[in-house]
């Protein structure tokens, strides 16, 4: 079975490579199709969701501290002692005990708060993972689209140079040009054929990447839709990231969990109260046999019922509790500092993505103008060459410039879309609800609600209320101010950014 699984995986990858060389599939796939498939089947996402569902159980386990613990035991012993008095003893006993915590010094309350904070932080990490996978899907999709277009341009280039070589040979045959012109045409055609081979190989690589992320080989891909959630200004991007960036929110919840663990450590110095009840029964049967008294049997049966209230107050722990409190406080400091680290990372990501987006936009506009101009120049150079005003090398150079400009335009459009996705990721907006409203998002709250009430008893509410009385307070750090950013500068005039758009230096 393992071998067949491996063969199946290699078959998929082999199919991806074959598709790179095969004719395009008639039915086009869309980016929405790719996103929907990856959202449901991507193994990275599936693993992260499973980890979060496992983390949900920590809440149930923490709340179990409010509930009674019931245990039972049974024991049977038999002994025989051959001697002057031959004795056989049968002992049987059974007990059932119940312990109900009344007050744990706030320990269980703090554990529940810490578990909930961990779960909320885990949800934000899941959001980050989903955004990363969505960005990978978009990158894989536009990589294939770019390389499909680059392959088409390379094929057109080879076709044009083939015709150019035929024309050059015909003119050479009638003595209009020299053998040098033919050699120049042949060299450019050989170069174009090498570029075509590279384009085919690159498309195969991109198709394999598509399979790895999305789970199936791409066919002919449709034009990717516009990412409408991209903001008009960088200030708007910063404001959205400050509220929605998954890294910032995950760090904030992690700090709350660390604060709860400080309270958990402090609870070790507080008293605990519990009640215990138990019932037990035991029986003993003893048989003794001797020459003087013959067979003597003695049986004893007893039952006992116990009930107690237990108050425990730690008095001296050798510095253990104090050390654990200091440790928890430093862990909380680490998590509080991590919030600022996450904020700075978000600022960096937004700034980088915004700069890349503006540069790609400007590049797309400039490259489009270059393609239009090179198209006119190439056609004019060809016509002038036919009447002897231009050489064959001039025509070849004009065609090469047009080819390079077309590739540059394809790359700049690719880079613009990738930068837009990167900006949305940094803002915390690269989610399926913004990308495709028809996809039903995974609901971690629903998965949590399915298990959070596991083992619940009517006593949970009053016991949790009592346990929360006087427990150390779990406080959140004061809210942070607006994101600190460097002074923005105006975007270059060539960039088609909207009014008010700025670029970070």
From TrEMBL:
Annotated GO MF terms: efflux transmembrane transporter activity; porin activity
Family to which this protein belongs: Belongs to the outer membrane factor (OMF) (TC 1.B.17) family.
Region annotation Disordered: where it falls in the sequence: 470-505
Family matches, as PANTHER family: OUTER MEMBRANE EFFLUX PROTEIN, OUTER MEMBRANE PROTEIN TOLC
RNA-binding among keywords: no
Localization: Cell outer membrane
GO cellular component, one term: cell outer membrane
Signal peptide positions on this chain: 1-28
SUPFAM superfamilies from the UniProt entry: Outer membrane efflux proteins (OEP)
A family per Pfam: OEP
Chain coiled-coil ranges: 151-202
NCBIfam families registered for this protein in UniProt: type_I_sec_TolC
InterPro entries from the UniProt entry: OMP_efflux, T1SS_OMP_TolC, TolC-like
Organism: Phenylobacterium montanum
Protein name from the UniProt record: TolC family outer membrane protein
Record keywords: Cell outer membrane, Coiled coil, Membrane, Signal, Transmembrane, Transmembrane beta strand, Transport
Keyword DNA-binding recorded: no
